[in-house]
């Protein structure tokens, strides 16, 4: 590690359309201007074979049982584990657009035992986040944003009842700090205001290098 700094793992999470991709970019640029070394990760990683498999599922190419789906999502984190560990050892701030917090939430809705998912993190040495920020929006906002972005919706994006269940589970998990320290931020607000609220939440952790 350079200058004795410890890397930090920051997660921005939420349902589709919450602004995770935009906010990770904004946060990266701001931290880099302040002299931090930053790397971005996004899950699922659609450039890798595992991510392509998940993309096919989300676009209804086939059906998968909840536990099978959970393991496929989990494999995506295992695939990126060494890169994340190396960056942390080198003192980078890592910002992830979604992470295991997302898998825990979505698969819990589908009846998968959350404790089984979390227990795998120890067996496979998946890096634990320093904080996960849940970007909260409504199902309606999610569908509106995603349709405007790409002109169609996948199986989760168009199912408002399912999204409502996911949101409630996200909030419950965040309030109880399931798996890691979490904080809820209202992502219905203007982009700049959301960005500032995210920064205020994570900067004490970023600056804590000891």
What does this structure look like?
By secondary structure, the protein is of the alpha/beta class. Helix content is 54%, strand content 13%. It has a single domain (2-207), classed as Rossmann fold (3-Layer(aba) Sandwich). It is built from 8 helices and 5 strands, in the order βαβααβααβααβα. The radius of gyration is 17 Å and the shape is globular. The model has no long low-confidence stretch (mean pLDDT 88).
How would the blueprint of this fold be written?
Elements: E1 8-13, H1 20-33, E2 38-42, H2 49-58, H3 66-89, E3 93-97, H4 100-109, H5 114-123, E4 131-136, H6 139-150, H7 160-175, E5 182-186, H8 191-207
Parallel strand pairs: 1-3, 1-4, 2-3, 4-5
Helix pairs in contact: 1-8, 2-3, 3-4, 4-7
Brief descriptors of the model:
210 residues; alpha/beta; Rossmann fold; five-stranded parallel β-sheet; 8 helices; 54% helix; 13% strand
Strand content: 5-15%
CATH class type: Alpha Beta
Give me the secondary-structure category: alpha/beta
Helix content: 40-55%
Quaternary state reads single chain
Rg, rounded, reads 17 Å
Largest sheet, spatial ordering of strands: 2-3-1-4-5
The total of beta strands comes to: 5
How are helices and strands ordered from N to C? EHEHHEHHEHHEH
CATH architecture: 3-Layer(aba) Sandwich
CATH superfamily: P-loop containing nucleotide triphosphate hydrolases
The name CATH uses for the topology is: Rossmann fold
The number of distinct structural domains comes to 1
User: What is the 3D shape?
Assistant: globular
Counted by DSSP, the helix tally is 8
Low-confidence stretches: none
Largest sheet: 5 strands, parallel
Rounded mean pLDDT score: 88
Terminal residue distance: 12 Å
């Amino acid at each position: 590690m350079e200058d004795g700094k410890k890397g930090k793992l920051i997660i921005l999470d939420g349902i589709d359309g919450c602004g995770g991709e935009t906010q990770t970019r904004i946060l990266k640029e701001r931290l880099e201007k302040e002299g931090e070394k930053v790397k971005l990760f996004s899950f699922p990683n659609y450039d890798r074979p595992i991510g392509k498999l998940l993309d096919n599922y989300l676009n209804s190419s086939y059906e998968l049982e909840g536990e099978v789906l959970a393991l496929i999502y989990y494999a995506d984190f295992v695939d990126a584990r060494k890169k994340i560990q190396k960056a942390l050892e080198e003192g980078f701030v890592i910002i992830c657009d979604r992470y295991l917090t997302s898998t825990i939430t979505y698969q819990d809705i589908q009846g998968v035992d959350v404790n089984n998912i979390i227990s795998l993190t120890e067996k496979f040495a998946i890096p634990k986040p320093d904080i996960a920020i849940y970007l909260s929006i409504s199902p309606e906002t999610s569908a509106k944003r995603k349709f405007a972005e790409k002109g169609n919706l996948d199986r989760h994006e168009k199912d408002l009842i399912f999204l409502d269940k996911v949101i409630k589970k996200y909030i419950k998990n965040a309030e109880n700090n399931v798996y890691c320290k979490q904080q809820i931020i209202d992502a219905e607000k203007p982009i700049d205001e959301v960005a500032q609220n995210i920064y205020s939440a994570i900067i004490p952790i970023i600056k804590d290098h000891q």
